[in-house]
User: Which sequence fits this backbone?
């Protein structure tokens, strides 16, 4: 028969408490590490979004600048940037249509004016972490409230935006042969 001393029982209880405390500390450390990792992953996705947006912006600018002289125009869709057949030699401004880093799909929002593509944006929900350090073309991104406010618009379109048909200047009306006579002003009672 083995007789156990009360001292040994207390030691086992202390060892068990130390083990529980270590497990709790490990859990807290993993939770903090997960939060830091998630923040790091979002920053990487933002950097990738900035890279992709800049690439597409350059491609749209290249498409516009390499247009035939008579018809300086923007592409109608993203696929036009993959293969431009307007010239005798096929030109490629993008190798592929990039995947949105936040959704892992090709679900870009398109900035279209007069049926022509002048830019893209991500439709991802969420508030950007990055608030400074943007390029000159992206200088307005610091005040963005969501990723969809990060609009990657052609630099050519930003300097000379195409006018929608409702705003396009109209030809002046032909002058009438006789001057218009002023009409008397009449007030109506309420």
Assistant:
């Amino acid at each position: 028969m083995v007789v156990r001393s009360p001292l040994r029982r207390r030691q086992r209880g202390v060892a068990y408490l130390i083990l529980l405390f270590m497990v709790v500390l490990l859990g807290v450390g993993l939770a903090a590490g997960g939060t830091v990792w998630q923040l790091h992953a979002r920053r990487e996705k933002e950097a990738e979004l900035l890279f992709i947006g800049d690439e597409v912006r350059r491609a749209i600018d290249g498409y516009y600048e390499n247009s035939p002289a008579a018809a300086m125009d923007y592409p109608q869709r993203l696929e036009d940037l993959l293969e431009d057949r307007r010239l005798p030699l096929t030109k490629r401004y993008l190798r592929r249509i990039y995947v949105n880093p936040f959704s892992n799909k090709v679900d870009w929002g398109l900035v279209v004016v007069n049926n022509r593509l002048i830019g893209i944006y991500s439709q991802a929900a969420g508030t950007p972490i990055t608030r400074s350090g943007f390029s000159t073309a992206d200088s307005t991104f610091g005040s963005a409230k969501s990723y969809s406010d990060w609009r990657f618009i052609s630099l050519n379109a930003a300097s000379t935006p195409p006018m929608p048909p409702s705003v396009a200047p109209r030809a002046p009306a032909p002058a009438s042969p006789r001057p218009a006579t002023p009409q008397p002003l009449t007030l109506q009672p309420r």
About this structure: The helical segments are 6-65, 155-159. The chain has a mean pLDDT of 80.
